[in-house]
Structure formats: structure tokens, C-alpha cells
Design a protein that fits this description.
339 residues; alpha/beta; 7-stranded mixed beta sheet; disordered C terminus
């Protein structure tokens, strides 16, 4: 049973709490979702006051974070309110143990207060991003994405993007079918990538249509990473010219189609190395690389170890590196298979 710990403290947002509870709380075995054990972990055992006159009763102490498979931190209604040191220490200990720690919306302030985000990428609600950057200058704050991950620390943007992150965490741990089943029961979209822009400065019907088209292209591409893909193909899916598509894609995601595809192919390869016993050439093929040599080169450059060394570390239960952002491509922006 996958154990999920909610870090409960006075002043946490009831919306975030509800999202976490709805994703990991209900028994959905009948639709193929694995069982979860969701616990509300707090420094003290008494009822916790929440905004809006609500209360929450914890059912575990902070020590339960030491046995969890995932720790989720809801936002505080007042982001700059201090968090007790024992809570911060428990978060640091969980991360040191290799447990994924995810913060929703202004929950990034809690992780930053714990010192966990120093030198790492993070995101929060776009309105709060400048405040997070000013308060914690060592944090690499990004304003555009819906959610980001850096060294096992996940942060999400505001409000509904918490749903996107929670579903993504289910997808990472248990596969797309489990995440889609939960999304269907919640009557929400099953998939928005983290690099989906938080908002548009000047929303217009045309901009909305473009954003929707680009999101659909990214979702379709992620389902077909094993196929040859180039800018012309992606642009045709979006109903745009290749040049216009590349420009809109970069504006929406902050990166080029080439770099975006490469990162997600490497992510797919990492999962295959962790979860299957496919030989490395087959992993390369399924992740969309034209050859094993090309795959090995990209994997070593962006992950820092060879595919075999990565698999050995994952099998031994050792900490394994994440895919780092790809360097800017040289000599054009091709996204052919194996690029």
C-alpha cells in the first residue's frame, strides 16, 4: 500500500487539503486504482483550525513522515506565517531519506523556509512568485510552469494546478491508467504537463485557442514518444506553419520543441530503466531514440550516469538523479527521432 502523508498545521488551505484527500483518499480498487494509506500528520494531536471556520483532526504524528512513500505539503492561507521547526526538521529528514516531497501553491514557502529549495527550481502561484523570490533569494523561482520538480522536491502553481500535480504524482508512481481513473472520478482533465503556462497576460479567444491547440499537441506527442516526430508533424497537428508553431511553443513552454521532446524522452527512458528489465537498446527504441548510441550520449549528458549505472542504482534502492534541463540545441531545432 502506497503511504501518503499530509503535513497538517494551523492555517493550511482547505482547498489544498480537499484536493489531496480526493486524489489519495477514496477506495477506487473497482476501477483499477491501487490502494493508498493517506494520513494527516501534525506536530500535536489536537484539532487544527483551518480558514473558514473548519477544523482538522490529525491521525498521525510527524514521525509517520519517516514511513511515508510521499509527503504532501498544503499551502498556508498566509504564506509567510512561520512553520514550527519540528515540522521543518521532519520535512528535511523525509527528503534526506529520498522520499518525494510535494508542496501545493504557497506550500513552496514552507519548503523554502526549511532550506530545501536553496539552489533548486521552484514554482508557486504567479501572484506570489516575486514574494517567494524576494524572501528566499537562493531559490530559483519560475513564474510560468504549472509544476516543476528538482531533486525529488515538487512545487506547483496556484489553486487548480495542485490537482494537476497530484495526478502527475499518481501517474509517476502508478502509471497513466491509475491517474486517468482518478481524474475521471473527479470529473477533471486527466493530463496537463508541468510546462503548461499558468496564465496569459492578455487572454483573447485567439490566444485561448492557440493554448488549447498546443496543450493537445504536447499530450499527443507524449503518447507517441516512440515515433519519429519533427516540427512539421507537430505543427500539422496544431494546424500551424512550422515557424509559427515553434514561436508559439516557445512562448507557452519557455523551451523549444526539440528540448521539450528530448527531456520527456529521457524521462520515459528513466522510467523504463527503473520499472522494466528491457535491455538498453529496447529502452532506447521505446523512448524514441534512433539508436542506442544516441540514447547513451543524451542520457549521460543530461542525467550524469550511463543507463546501466542508473538502472543498477535504482535496483539497489540508491538515490538516482533526475533528468536535468537540456542544453540549448546547436545547429537548428530539429526534433527528429533520436535527435
Amino acid at each position: 500500500m502506497h503511504r501518503v502523508a499530509i503535513v497538517a498545521q494551523p492555517g493550511i488551505r482547505s482547498f489544498d487539503l480537499a484536493v489531496i484527500t480526493e486524489v489519495w483518499g477514496p477506495d477506487r480498487a473497482r476501477v483499477g486504482v491501487p490502494p493508498f494509506e493517506l494520513r494527516r500528520c501534525a506536530l500535536e494531536s489536537g484539532p487544527i483550525a483551518l480558514p473558514g471556520g473548519l477544523t482538522l483532526t490529525p491521525d498521525r504524528g510527524l514521525d509517520w513522515l519517516g514511513t511515508a512513500d510521499l509527503v504532501v505539503v498544503p499551502a498556508l492561507a498566509e504564506p509567510t506565517d512561520p512553520t514550527p521547526e519540528p515540522v521543518l526538521a521532519a520535512l528535511r529528514a523525509a527528503h534526506a531519506r529520498g522520499v518525494p516531497v510535494a508542496a501545493l501553491c504557497a506550500g513552496a514557502f514552507v519548503l523554502a523556509e526549511a532550506g530545501l529549495l536553496d539552489g533548486r527550481r521552484a514554482v508557486t502561484h504567479w501572484w506570489l512568485a516575486p514574494q517567494l523570490a524576494a524572501r528566499y533569494p537562493e531559490v530559483l523561482v519560475e513564474e510560468a510552469p504549472l509544476y516543476v520538480e528538482d531533486d525529488g522536491l515538487w512545487t506547483s502553481a496556484g489553486v487548480a494546478s495542485g490537482i494537476d500535480l497530484c495526478l502527475h504524482l499518481v501517474r509517476e508512481a502508478h502509471g497513466s491508467e491509475a491517474a486517468a481513473a482518478i481524474a475521471r472520478s473527479m470529473v477533471t482533465g486527466p493530463f496537463r504537463t508541468g510546462d503548461h503556462a499558468q496564465y496569459l497576460d492578455r487572454p483573447t479567444p485567439s490566444a485561448d485557442r492557440t493554448a488549447e491547440a498546443l496543450a493537445a499537441v504536447r499530450e499527443r506527442a507524449l503518447r507517441r514518444l516512440h515515433e519519429p516526430l519533427d516540427v512539421a508533424t507537430l505543427a500539422r497537428w496544431a494546424g500551424m506553419s512550422p515557424r509559427s508553431f515553434a514561436r508559439h511553443f516557445a512562448a507557452a513552454t519557455g523551451t523549444t520543441p526539440h528540448r521539450w521532446l528530448l527531456r520527456h524522452r529521457l524521462d520515459e527512458a528513466r522510467k523504463l530503466l527503473e520499472r522494466t528489465d528491457h535491455p538498453v537498446p529496447e529502452v532506447a527504441r521505446r523512448a524514441g531514440f534512433a539508436s542506442e548510441v544516441t540514447f547513451r550520449q543524451h542520457f549521460a549528458a543530461h542525467v550524469g550516469v550511463s543507463p546501466r549505472a542508473y538502472r543498477a542504482a535504482a535496483s539497489a534502492g540508491s538515490a538516482v538523479p533526475s533528468v536535468v534541463p537540456a542544453a540549448a540545441p546547436r545547429g537548428g531545432d530539429s526534433v527528429r527521432k533520436g535527435s
